[in-house]
Amino acid sequence: MSIAIEKITKNYGSFHALNGVSLTIASGELVALLGPSGSGKTTLLRIIAGLESADSGAVRLHNEETAHLNASLRGIGFVFQHYALFRHMTIFENVAFGLRVQSRRVRLSRREIRERVTELLSLVQLDSYARMFPDQLSGGQRQRVALARALAVRPRVLLLDEPFSALDAKVRKDLRNWLRHIHDELRVTTVLVTHDQEEALEVADRVAILNRGALEQFGTPQEIYDRPVSPFVYNFLGNVNLFHGRLLAALTAQGAADSSDAASIVGFVRPHEFEVTRALPPNGQAVPAVIERVNAAGAQVHLEVKVAGNKNPVAVEIAKRQFHELKLGEGEEIYLSPQSIRVFNDRAAAEQLLEQGAGI
Amino acid sequence: MHLVRLRSKSERAPSLKTTATRLALVFAALIFVAAFLVLPLVTVFAQAFAQGWRVYADAVCREDVIAALKLTALVAAFAVPLNVIFGLAASWAIARFDFVGKKLLNSLIDIPLAVSPVVAGIMYVEVFGLRGWLGAWLSAHNLHIIFAVPGIVLATVFVTFPFVARELIPFMQAQGCDEEEAAVVLGASAPSIFWRITLPNIKWPLLYGTILAASRSIGEFGAVSVVSGHIRGLTVTTPLEVEMLYNEYNFTAAFAVASLLTLAAVVTLIVKKAIELATGIHGERETGERAR
Amino acid sequence: MNDRASTQKSWRFKQSSPLPGFGLSLGYTLFYLTIIVLLPLAAIVLRSLHNGPARFLRAISTPRVAAACWLTLESSLLASVVTAIFGSLVAWVLARYNFPGRRLIDALIDLPFALPTAVAGISLTALYSETGWIGRHLEPRGIHIVFTQWGIVLAMSFVGLPFVVRSVQPVLEEIDSAMEEAAISLGASDWQVFTRILAPVCLPALITGTALAFARAAGEYGSVIFIAGNMPMKTEIAALLVVTKLEEYDYVGASAIAVAMLALSFVVMLTLNLLQWRLQRRKGERV
Predict the structure, then answer these.
(1) What are the extents of the domains in chain C?
(2) What is the chain B residue with the closest CA to C26?
(3) Count of domains forming chain B
(4) What is the helix (H) or strand (E) element at residue B69, kind and residue range?
(5) Where are the domains of chain A?
(6) Are B123 and B40 within one domain?
(7) Mutual orientation of helices C39-48 and C251-283 as an angle, nearest 10°?
(8) Does domain A241-355 fall into CATH 3.30.70.1530?
């Protein structure tokens, strides 16, 4: 069941939630809508569900226009951020709900409903909780019930609105893997909204990054991470260090281009993409730096490094072994050269990111 | 059709019914409210002024009416502060401490709400009346409670007993005692804690409860009727005066006095709504819903 | 909530707390409660049983008393049904829709609480009498409100309305719209959402409000005695009979009826509390 989103626009008064977003999701795919709050991702999801209506544009489910269809008729399953379980019903009744409200013609028999609910409860591993009430379950368990409930009516599309954001970190990770697992088994077209880039990159087949109502990039996790098309995408997916002007020239050996060019070009380097040496490397593409702070707790060692000519300190991550081999410590002088540097010709965006605290 | 819009938080919330049904429901509710609530309200004033301003003014300025108004004010002036003090004491004990029987105490405080006003009146007659428990002792000391002003005050105290406490208790429970504990740690004395920390924090529910108590004190009829003795000029409160005038077929005067009480009621409603809008306090509205 | 846990190894009356004033506040509270509430309550119960329970039973089963009690009970029940229906309608409209004048109506709902019962009584009588604005349309058609049981039911409904509205309205307002959206996304029609999701959630509140309206109606005096007509055996309510007996110095009789009324109120309140408690235990939190 494919989803075609065509030029969807949505405004709330003077606030532009979505600006002509277009996207095509293939049948059976798991797509993540990723972005900061206010990016429009939840709005888009709710428009697909029919819980909100777009001002212009169209949503096609398997090539069928949906604008005239109520949310109850689209054959979608929706999982809410705060579960939205029916508190006055037992777990069993919650999961059975979608099956019980079907019109008499298509409704399953009571026995069939019971079988299906039991099947789903085992799928989500909550068999023994059937007679309990939602308030007696933990957050993670409730979310699994919500998923079972959504899947009960065999939806053609499954939509999840930040389903794990209300849960603890560990539970979140477990549920994330588990969702991927279920998806691989059932192969339902799934759209997941999240603001957690780690979640999106781990779980999804493809990721759509939204910013301020516009689609920034849509691709596989690998594509997005390795070949980000804009500073925003680059920064959103992880920590970033920015270099421009003379420093950039030094790092990339692109020659000291004339000042107008230099002004708008910015280089992005991730903390773990630096090569750290004691002496200037042979090709000379490095900058001198002084280590200001060392944080050695954890798998990698985090260094805060001052580079002459850069206003903000540079974040560097190196392996513990290398840290000890080079006998580094606070105050030591080192040379930094980037293993990989991504250059964008968009100083305005880069500076905005800097102002927003990007870098460390 | 934007005359009737949905109040739900989501932008296009599930429209539970078509616009026509929505309109019909609102219309039906409005008609009901108009007939059931608005008309009686308007009737009071219509009847009061039925014979013109002059008659109205004369009715309201009658000697016995003035005496009744004074008595009502006096009774309220005693009953409300008494219950405010009680409310503060009870809410301090219940909302700030944990002890055996706390829940029971909480429920006991609600008793007056379940009791018919007439029963309340007769209860006091049984204790303080001539043939009551304390009757002999009281008349021996020439103290008159029943059929005198003190009895009226007592009966009024009874019916407004829980109002302030019921506003304060859930509020203070929800607030928690962190601030007061911090004050203790900083070395504040008990009165200091009370005046500087507790009181400022509870001023809105306190005001709300006080207004409810005052409104009820002014308007109480059944309980006061039993203990009053109906001695014109001495033990007749304003609602009783309304009844007496009405029973004497002096309808215009009765409604004239009633209109004063109605005005007070309307003012109460306005102030209540204003507090609710300003602070989000909804009070418990005598509905028995409360945080346990 | 900052209430402390209340179990410790040794039994203590009160959990230790750094806050001052416990003794004083509790002492005063108990003192005041005893004098104002408990003592008079005890007095009337004892008085009614003064000459033995047999006399008590006889006092409340004379034809006149029985008629008054039955009339009061029946009228209160009818009034409860009326308030339940209209109160729910009003609560629904206020909670779910926004329309011009909504705030005004919302404030008006509390009118029966704020208005003195005597004023309500004479006003309703004037309104529904044959010269009244509503009565003049009803009387010629043979619909008699004043001086009949219908008048009693009307007055009782008037005072009971706010109980139902104010019980149901907050519950409706606080229903998570996500629950409704979930139901819709699962394919429920509007009617199904109403009957399966909204109504069950509001039912406990409706029951509470209606029970409270009932209790209030059964004890109501001021609003009823003007419109009722007060004919013994026909339109005389229990509360009025208590007052009449008092004026005749039949203290035992008056107390007997009063205690019977008390018993009814307490039974209603107790049942309500038990229901609420059971509901809370089952769900683990307030619905």
Answers:
(1) 22-51, 62-283
(2) B93
(3) 2
(4) helix B63-96
(5) 3-236, 241-355
(6) no
(7) 120
(8) no
Q: Which two tokens stand for residue C279?
A: 């509901």
The correct CATH number of A3-236 out of 1.10.150.240, 1.10.443.10, 3.40.50.300, 3.40.640.10 is: 3.40.50.300
List % helix, strand, coil for chain B (3-state, nearest 5). 70, 0, 25
Quick: pLDDT tens for B177-186.
888 888 887 7
Of C178, C186, C285, the CB nearest to A101: C186
Q: Is B24 in the same domain as B96?
A: no
What the block records as the tokens of A130 is: 């059937």
How many whole angstroms separate alpha carbon B238 and alpha carbon B261?
A: 8
Amino acid at A206: R
DSSP string, C217-265: HHH--HHHHHHH---TTTT--HHHHHHHHHHTT-HHHHHHHHHHHHHHH
Instruction: Enumerate residues 2 to 21 of chain B having a beta carbon within 8 A of any beta carbon in chain A.
Output: 10-12, 14
Q: Give the whole-angstrom CA distance, residue C263 versus residue C251.
A: 18
Cβ atoms of A236 and A34 within 8 Å: the answer is yes
Alpha carbon C66 to its chain's center: 22
- Higher-confidence position of C180 and A286: C180
* pLDDT at residue number B17: 55
Q: Which residues of C touch A108 (CB under 8 A)?
A: none
Chain C 59-118, residues with CB within 8 Å of chain B CB atoms: 86, 89-90, 92-101, 103, 105-118
Whether B193 contacts B184, CB under 8 Å = yes
- The candidate with the shortest Cα–Cα distance to B68, out of B258, B211, B247, is B258
Its domain, for residue B220, covers 52-279
Chain A contact partners (≥3 CB pairs within 8 A): B, C
Digit-by-digit pLDDT tens for chain C (287 residues) are: 444 444 444 567 777 777 888 889 999 999 999 999 999 999 888 888 777 888 888 888 889 999 999 999 999 999 999 999 999 999 999 998 888 889 899 999 999 999 999 999 999 999 999 888 988 888 888 888 899 999 999 999 999 999 999 999 999 988 888 999 999 999 888 889 999 999 999 998 999 899 999 999 999 999 999 999 888 888 999 999 999 998 888 888 888 899 999 999 889 988 888 887 787 666 544 33
- State whether residue C281 sits within 8 Å of chain A by CB: no
Complex-level ipTM: 0.86
pLDDT tens profile C43-67:
888 888 777 888 888 888 889 999 9
- Which of A10, A7, A161, B116 is CA-nearest to residue C258? B116
pLDDT at C3: 45
pTM over 0.90: no
How many CA atoms lie less than 13 Å away from C173 in the CB half-sphere? 14
Residue with tokens 């569900």: A49
In a domain, B4, yes or no: no
Amino acid A171 reads V
Residues of chain B positioned with their CB less than 8 A from the CB of C94: 29
Question: Where does residue A259 rank: exposed (0-12), middle (13-18), buried (19+ CB within 10 A)?
Answer: exposed
Residues of A in contact with B14 (CB under 8 A): 51, 71
Q: Where are the beta strands (DSSP E) in chain C?
A: 97-98
Contacts of C198 in chain A (CB under 8 A): none
Q: Are C66 and C57 in contact (CB under 8 A)?
A: no
Model pLDDT, residue A352:
67
**Would you state the pLDDT for residue A263?**
60
Burial class (CB in 10 A: 0-12, 13-18, 19+), C123: buried
A264 — pLDDT class (breaks 50, 70, 90): low
| Domain C62-283, CATH class in plain words | mainly alpha
Q: Is residue B263 part of a domain?
A: yes
Residue B216, in any domain of the structure = yes
Residue B231, domain member (yes or no):
yes
Contact with chain A for residue C202, Cβ under 8 A: no
